[in-house]
Amino acid sequence: MRLSARQHFLLRLSAFGVLAFIYIPLLIIGIEAFNEARTLTWPPPAFTTEWFQRAFENTGARDAFLYSLRTAAIATTIALFLGSLAALGVSRFRFFGREAVSFLVILPIALPGIVTGIALNSTFTKVLGLDLGLLTLVIAHATFCIVVVYNNVIARLRRLSTSFEEASADLGATPWQTARWVTLPNMRTALVAGALLAFALSFDEIIVTVFTIGVGEETLPQWLLNNFSRPQQLPIVNAVAVIVILLSIIPVYLAHRLTREEGSAAAPRGGGAVAAAEATAAP
């Protein structure tokens, strides 16, 4: 479709407007992180990098960062295993209630976080009698991280023809050989992308965290929230927020790169997988 110069201009202006709407608040935080003043002043009277140095030296922020990393890593591992199994079951088998299972798997991501947090808190403390801590926090994060992995993997499996797996079986490969040489290689980018997004989602979560974390424990988003209202800590909070933004960009960008050309690369990967299965099954 050919567009006039005026239409091109309007499209570019609209795109710029959307990006400005999303990123101007983040840009302001980035500028405030270099603000020499301890209070929120605009425009900043002078600029400094002192707050970033103090952010790295802050014991509370560092401990909260490591706790968030540990929680996100464990929750992502659990979500990767359970989410991929659920995607395989729904996409590769036909059974009564299959669509209902798919709906129930993705439902947690749509529920309000406060509802999920209250439900999990009641289950852990009143029904199971567990003390809140790392275990309960990891389980809570895994409940919504599973959805991200599931959506990525099932989308990939639905685009992948079952003929590759059928060819592997016809060549004499066992189910485990087919899974190793055919299914998993074709799922690889979806698994990595889902894991990266799940990690970012867990790392940034705060609402469910408030209801499921142990006493005296703190994730980095919680540290930011708790210190935001303290005037003396505000410059350090801004600096930490910028660091979190930069760290959050990495998994999202990598996931985007992995899935961007996944469709065009699927056929060559599938062909190679069948060849590998043939080599494995050959006597």
What CATH calls the topology is MetI-like fold
**What is the 3D shape?**
globular
Rounded mean pLDDT is 81
The percent range for helix content is over 70%
Q: Class, according to the CATH hierarchy?
A: Mainly Alpha
Regions with little confidence, pLDDT below 50 for 5+ residues: 263-283
The largest pleated sheet is described as: none
**Beta-sheet strand percentage?**
under 5%
Calculate Rg over CA atoms.
Answer: 23 Å
The structural class is: mainly alpha
Elements, N to C (H/E): HHHHHHHHHHHH
> Gap between N and C termini, in Å?
55 Å
Entry summary:
The chain is mostly helical. The chain contains 12 helices and no strands.
Describe what this molecule looks like in 3D.
The chain has helices spanning 5-32, 50-57, 59-92, 98-106, 113-127, 134-159, 163-170, 175-204, 207-212, 220-228, 234-260, 262-281. The protein is mainly alpha-helical and 283 residues long. It has one domain (46-281): MetI-like (MetI-like fold), CATH 1.10.3720.10. Helix 7 (163-170) packs antiparallel against helix 8. The model is unreliable at 263-283 (pLDDT under 50).
